[in-house]
């Protein structure tokens, strides 16, 4: 019985020792940058060590020389690894971790070669990184930019972007950015509004009733005439200027020609016609509300336009707060009931409590009565009639020293 207990105790101790060696080996392999090479090096070292020991046992005279030779070989093979194990705890004190950095794609070489005017070499660098990191957004967009802008290969750039958009595990934001980039290529490089519109419409089709679709619909509302505007930037056309008044200095007071302005009603009709085609164009609707309030003095129509914007989903909180503040301003300027702007500003504090926009709304609420009193006082002051363009009237030096009024 005593002998059996010793055997069991010895077996348990051997198991514990082997488990400890196995755990240490696993930790070393897990932290190693090249675990396969480490395993091969370990196995080769064991075989070489056993062979050296056997040789030293059979040739006792040369045994010391064999042992020295074995030590030299082991020092050459294992010194870098041992140095790394010893220095790793020290370096981790400064780096914060002894884990190897994540492998990430590097495009610095591609950027440098593109800058030096070597697009083919830059494409090769990008493709080499994409082979290791498929569907990397930066790499795909860089590849498309080089193909479209440097190689004049717009079809190749479109294929790269569309393959990226149709790949798995690609987020909606990345698809949105890629298709917008494709639309930019069609506009800037081929002046093709229809192709750009098709690329943008694909976003609306892929992600209906989302913030991405809303932003895209706003851009679609301003796409008409974009090609002509781009042409005008690079090839300015002559602007016809009407002939001026001859001998102006010899005449008395002459009414200077004034630029023809679009009447507010006509401008409102133009905005409404545009919104019939692009009802999600928030910028145009905001301009229409401003025209209703400031030029036509129609608070009801301005309120209707802004409320339509506020009722649309997926608008960011910043824009919603801007529109509510804008509506409150119109209600102060054109309304007679202080309760209207109070209710409007309270919508901000209720919808976004504790936010910076809510703090601004609370400050406006605190001084709302003063704003109304100031507006009423200003409206009661009767302004006299003043000659137009007073700021443009200067006296000549030496003629009475007249100054601008």
How would you briefly describe this protein structure?
This protein is mainly α and 405 residues long. It is 70% helix and 0% strand. The radius of gyration is 39 Å and the shape is elongated.
Describe the structure.
- The protein has about 400 residues and is an all-alpha fold.
- It has three domains: about 55 residues; about 120 residues, Serine Threonine Protein Phosphatase 5, Tetratricopeptide repeat (Alpha Horseshoe), CATH 1.25.40; about 110 residues, Alpha Horseshoe (Serine Threonine Protein Phosphatase 5, Tetratricopeptide repeat), CATH 1.25.40.
- It is built from 18 helices and no strands.
- α6 packs parallel to α8, α14 runs antiparallel to α15 and α16 packs antiparallel against α17.
- The longest helix has about 35 residues.
- The termini are far apart.
- The C terminus is likely disordered.
Q: Topology of this structure?
A:
Layout: H1 2-31, H2 35-58, H3 63-95, H4 108-115, H5 119-132, H6 137-150, H7 154-165, H8 172-190, H9 193-206, H10 211-221, H11 226-234, H12 264-277, H13 282-294, H14 299-311, H15 317-334, H16 339-351, H17 356-366, H18 368-380
């Amino acid at each position: 019985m005593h002998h059996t207990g010793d055997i069991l105790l010895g077996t348990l101790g051997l198991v514990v020792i082997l488990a400890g060696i196995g755990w240490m080996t696993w930790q070393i392999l897990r932290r190693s940058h090249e675990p396969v090479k480490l395993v091969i090096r370990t196995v080769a070292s064991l075989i070489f060590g056993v062979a050296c020991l056997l040789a030293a046992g059979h040739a006792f005279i040369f045994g010391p020389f064999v042992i020295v030779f074995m030590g030299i070989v082991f020092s050459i093979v294992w010194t870098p690894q041992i140095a790394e194990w010893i220095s790793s705890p020290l370096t981790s004190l400064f780096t914060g971790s002894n884990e190897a950095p994540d492998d990430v794609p590097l495009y610095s070489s591609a950027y440098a070669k593109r800058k030096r005017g070597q697009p083919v070499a830059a494409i090769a660098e990008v493709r080499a990184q994409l082979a290791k990191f498929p569907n990397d957004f930066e790499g795909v967009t860089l590849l498309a930019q080089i193909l479209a802008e440097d190689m004049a290969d717009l079809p190749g750039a479109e294929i790269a972007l569309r393959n990226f958009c149709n790949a798995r595990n690609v987020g909606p934001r990345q698809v949105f950015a890629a298709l917008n980039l494709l639309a930019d290529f069609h506009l800037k490089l081929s002046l093709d509004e229809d192709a750009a519109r098709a690329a943008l419409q694909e976003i609306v089709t892929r992600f209906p009733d989302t913030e991405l679709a809303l932003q895209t619909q706003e851009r679609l509302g301003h796409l008409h005439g974009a090609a002509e505007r781009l042409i005008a930037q690079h090839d300015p056309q002559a602007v016809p200027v009407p002939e001026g008044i001859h001998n102006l200095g010899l005449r008395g007071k002459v009414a200077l020609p004034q630029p023809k302005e679009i009447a507010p009603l006509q401008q409102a009709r133009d905005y409404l016609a545009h919104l019939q085609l692009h009802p999600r164009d928030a910028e145009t609707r905001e301009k229409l509300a401003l025209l209703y309030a400031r030029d036509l003095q129609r608070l009801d129509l301005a309120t209707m336009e802004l409320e339509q914007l506020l009722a649309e989903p997926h608008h960011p909180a910043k824009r919603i707060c801007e529109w509510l503040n804008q509506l409150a301003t119109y209600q102060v300027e054109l309304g007679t009931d202080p309760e209207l702007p109070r209710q409007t500003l309270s919508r901000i504090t209720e919808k976004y409590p504790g936010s910076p926009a809510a703090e601004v709304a609370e400050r406006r609420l605190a001084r709302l009565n003063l704003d109304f009193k100031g507006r009423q006082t200003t409206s009661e002051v009767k302004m006299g009639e003043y000659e137009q363009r007073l700021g443009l009237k200067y006296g000549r030096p030496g003629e009475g020293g007249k100054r601008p009024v």
